[in-house]
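Handoff note, outgoing to incoming analyst
You'll be picking up this chain. Sequence as last confirmed:
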Amino acid sequence: NRLLFARDAIRALNELHQEGAPDEPLVHRNLTPQTILVRHDNSPIFTGFDRTKIPSDVSVASSSIPASHSPQSISPEVQLQGLAAADQRSDVYSLCACLTGLFAGLNDGVSSGTIEILAAGQAEAPKQRCTLAELDRSLSELLGDSVPLPPAPPARFWTEDQTIRFHGGDYRIVVCLGSGRVGTTFKVVEVDRSTGEELGTYVAKVAHEPETGQRVLKAYGLARSHLGRHESLSPIHEFARQWQENDFIALLGWIEGTPLNEFTGLFPLVAEDQDEPSAEIATRLCRLRLDESIIYVLNAIVECFLGSLHA
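Most recent structure output, in case you need it:
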């Protein structure tokens, strides 16, 4: 995974450099372990663009060397002459120096080979440093297809556009709908793995604790056959056979609607229509009627269970 990240960081810097014109190259000039971040899917994110040399007639960036916690990532020419001497070859030096730290102290063959490849981008003279394309090719040859994809982080760190595999399908997170003591709910879209086509929208549930997760799974198993297609009840599409940490416990059907918080502006109108003295009282009445609706639905489910038991 470290090798895969290093290769992707090389490609990301190459993409950044290509944004500039040949006569006015784009140079980052501030690549350090503090400005190179890692996303949940092991892909790189570059930050610290306050020192970037942007193609323009006027530059507002300082030419002094930034106060870095990692002076070893600053190229020799920049250390001698300041940021004015930095070019794309200086970025290559800084990135290779930062990535080398990922493999320091590791004695396996892959790590030793990666350090040797990255050393070619850290030559003292800028003209002697290898290009990003050469680094990409060498790391890709060393990488091969043997490195597995990184596992998903804990569910509390899941973010938008992250893909979670559940029961053989790939589900991309659209947004987190809410989180509480029991678990977290996400709006997800099933994606075809080969074509990227969106196959359907669902509500995904995650339970944080094993004891709670097992109880919730039992409830889904009992209720699944009794929940028909109803305009206000979400059907249970699929649920896990047993609770697993950082995995979905159930997929529910997605029903299009309007979030309740969008109705808050209507409460003063409800208060006026019902001759209530304040919008707060109207809000409490709406909540009471909502609670009565929930109780009605729960009673209907209980009657279904009692009827099946008598049968």
